[in-house]
């Protein structure tokens, strides 16, 4: 069905905040950056996905419930209203309406429309305006979420009752429940259950398999409890707003409710990683960046599916300092995720000065860093790892196999690898020998070794005021 209103280029131009945004919108509309173009069955929505600098496409929409005052929305971090992507959506429809297929808005957009309509009615009729109930589509999705969580609870109870986690019957149940969780839009629950299924096939000792499986079961119980709170709209006492936003994004696949906008960031990439995540069926591309003003370690991420990997842009890697005019910082813990538009970045600058600054921001006392990491671990569904920059006083070996970092107070952290087929620790030992008398700062990933319940450090990069050595693949 076509849109229920006629739009023209002159009308769209009148919506543009300024000529610069109008020009950018025209360029986007003429490119292939708008994808999955759609118009709703009732002719009141235009929808598209827009490729920007973020790892995931932005959701762009135009709501014509009031044909005289369309509401343009975009999940991009740009401050302009309307922004270049939503204007580009209108331009694309004005020029090529036949390119738009059938597409319906997501529940979040439907709820936003309902709230706006209700607010408009209150303006007209005052507090006595009738309240509107949620749409049936939202009710169905919530009901699917409840049903999937109930299936997960029954599966977990069956695991506890039988103690036989890896039987063929349980494998079939896990596949069925995992599909229900995925279909209900509960990504973390589905991925964690998939990790359990992957663990079942790993060639490790039965003791280790049950130890690691027990840890995953604990995570699944915590996920189930938190999902119930979200689905029943029940607040959790004492939970910080940032933690709630983080968990909503992870458990429900939502965009951050209140992302923080950071400006004028000076960043230096210390390490770049590309691990495969079998549970997600995705390759993760991670740029670990230090804020040269504060020492905070941020991460810029791309999740690229094994199937159709080329449909998602690569995460950029930077071999020079990068200045970002404006970026969105997602809710999180020690390593928050950053997203920004490519047009907001400037790559280049004094690399020697940036490296010297980064070296000076390394943490000299391990106890302070470990304490922060343990605070993160107190949140059951927080990341079980964190990337930090340490300044060891000594990098040494105990016996032939154990490498340790020691700080100026004698505090120690053991270095460890997360892969069996590649050793970052061996690379660190070689790098330390190459650097000679220069004592490097070391970027490490803190993690808990489940089989020993000990916090360890995977080295990712070594740096001095003059050298920067990346230690991973």
How confident overall, as mean pLDDT? Answer: 88
Largest sheet: 7 strands, antiparallel
Helix content: 25-40%
What's the total helix number? 12
Principal-axis shape equals globular
Q: How many beta-strand segments?
A: 19
User: Beta-strand level of the residues, as a percent range?
Assistant: 15-25%
Rg on CA atoms, Å? 25 Å
**Structure classification:** alpha+beta
In whole angstroms, the N-to-C terminal distance is: 51 Å
Unreliable segments of 5+ consecutive residues: none
Q: Domain count, please report it.
A: 4
Question: How are the SSEs ordered, and which strands pair?
Answer:
Blueprint: H1 9-15, H2 19-30, E1 34-39, E2 45-50, E3 58-63, E4 71-74, H3 84-95, E5 101-102, H4 107-125, H5 136-162, H6 168-183, H7 187-201, H8 206-231, H9 241-252, E6 260-273, E7 276-277, E8 282-291, E9 297-305, E10 322-329, E11 338-339, E12 345-347, H10 351-360, H11 366-377, E13 385-390, E14 394-398, E15 402-406, E16 412-415, H12 424-435, E17 441-449, E18 454-463, E19 468-470
Parallel strand pairs: 1-5, 16-18
Antiparallel strand pairs: 1-2, 2-3, 3-4, 6-8, 6-10, 7-8, 8-9, 10-11, 10-12, 13-17, 14-15, 15-16, 17-18, 18-19
Outline the structure in words.
The protein is α+β, with helices and mostly antiparallel strands. The protein has 4 domains: 9-127, no CATH class; 136-231; 243-360, Beta Barrel (OB fold (Dihydrolipoamide Acetyltransferase, E2P)); 366-470, OB fold (Dihydrolipoamide Acetyltransferase, E2P). The chain contains 12 helices and 19 strands. It has helices at 9-15, 19-30, 84-95, 107-125, 136-162, 168-183, 187-201, 206-231, 241-252, 351-360, 366-377, 424-435; strands spanning 34-39, 45-50, 58-63, 71-74, 101-102, 260-273, 276-277, 282-291, 297-305, 322-329, 338-339, 345-347, 385-390, 394-398, 402-406, 412-415, 441-449, 454-463, 468-470. The strands form 3 sheets. Strands 6, 7, 8, 9, 10, 11 and 12 form a 7-stranded antiparallel β-sheet that branches. Strands 13, 14, 15, 16, 17, 18 and 19 form a 7-stranded mixed β-sheet that branches. Strands 4-3-2-1-5 form a 5-stranded mixed β-sheet, covered by helices on one side. Strand 1 (34-39) and strand 2 form a beta hairpin. Helix 2 packs across helix 3 and helix 8 (206-231) packs across helix 9. The longest helix is centred in the first third of the chain and has 27 residues, at 136-162. The radius of gyration is 25 Å and the shape is globular. The model has no long low-confidence stretch (mean pLDDT 88).
């Amino acid at each position: 069905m076509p849109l229920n209103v006629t739009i023209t280029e002159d009308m769209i131009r009148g919506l543009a905040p300024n000529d610069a945004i109008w020009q950018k919108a025209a360029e986007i509309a003429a490119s292939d950056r708008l994808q999955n173009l759609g118009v709703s069955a009732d002719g009141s929505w235009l929808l598209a996905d827009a490729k920007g600098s973020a790892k995931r496409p932005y959701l762009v929409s135009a709501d014509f419930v009031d044909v005289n005052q369309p509401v343009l929305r975009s999940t991009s971090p740009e401050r302009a209203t309307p922004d270049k992507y939503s204007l580009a959506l209108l331009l694309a429809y004005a020029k090529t309406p036949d390119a738009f297929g059938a597409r319906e808005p997501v529940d979040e957009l439907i709820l936003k429309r309902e709230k706006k309509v209700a607010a408009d009615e209150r303006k007209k009729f005052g507090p006595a305006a009738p309240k509107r109930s949620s749409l049936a589509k939202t009710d169905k999705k919530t009901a699917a979420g409840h049903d999937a969580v109930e299936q997960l609870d029954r599966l977990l109870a069956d695991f506890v009752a039988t103690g036989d986690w890896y039987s063929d019957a349980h494998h079939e149940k896990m596949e069925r429940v995992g599909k229900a969780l995925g279909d209900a839009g509960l990504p973390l629950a589905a991925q964690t259950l998939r990790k359990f299924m992957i663990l079942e096939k790993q060639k490790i000792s039965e003791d280790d398999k049950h130890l690691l499986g027990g840890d995953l079961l604990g995570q699944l119980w915590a996920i189930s409890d938190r999902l119930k709170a979200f689905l029943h709209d029940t607040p959790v006492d004492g939970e910080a707003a940032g933690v709630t936003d983080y968990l909503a994004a992870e458990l429900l696949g939502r965009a951050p409710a209140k992302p923080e906008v950071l400006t004028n960031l000076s960043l230096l990439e210390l390490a770049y990683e590309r691990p495969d995540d079998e549970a997600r069926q995705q390759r993760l591309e991670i740029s670990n960046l230090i804020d040269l003003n504060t020492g905070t370690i941020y991460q810029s991420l791309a999740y690229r599916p094994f199937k159709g990997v080329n449909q998602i842009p690569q995460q950029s890697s930077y071999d020079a300092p990068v200045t970002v005019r404006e970026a969105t910082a997602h809710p999180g813990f020690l390593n928050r995720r950053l997203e920004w538009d490519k047009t907001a970045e400037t790559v280049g600058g004094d690399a020697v000065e940036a490296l010297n600054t980064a070296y000076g921001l390394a943490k000299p006392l391990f106890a302070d860093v470990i304490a922060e990491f343990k605070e993160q671990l107190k949140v059951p569904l927080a990341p079980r790892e964190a990337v930090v920059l340490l300044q060891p006083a000594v990098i040494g070996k105990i016996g032939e196999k154990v490498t340790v970092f020691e700080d100026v107070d004698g505090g120690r952290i053991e270095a460890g690898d997360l892969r069996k087929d590649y050793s970052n620790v061996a690379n660190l030992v070689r790098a330390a020998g190459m650097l000679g008398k220069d004592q490097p700062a070391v970027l490490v990933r803190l993690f808990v070794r489940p089989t020993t319940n000990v916090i360890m450090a995977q080295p990712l990069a070594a740096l001095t005021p003059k050298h920067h050595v990346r230690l991973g693949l």
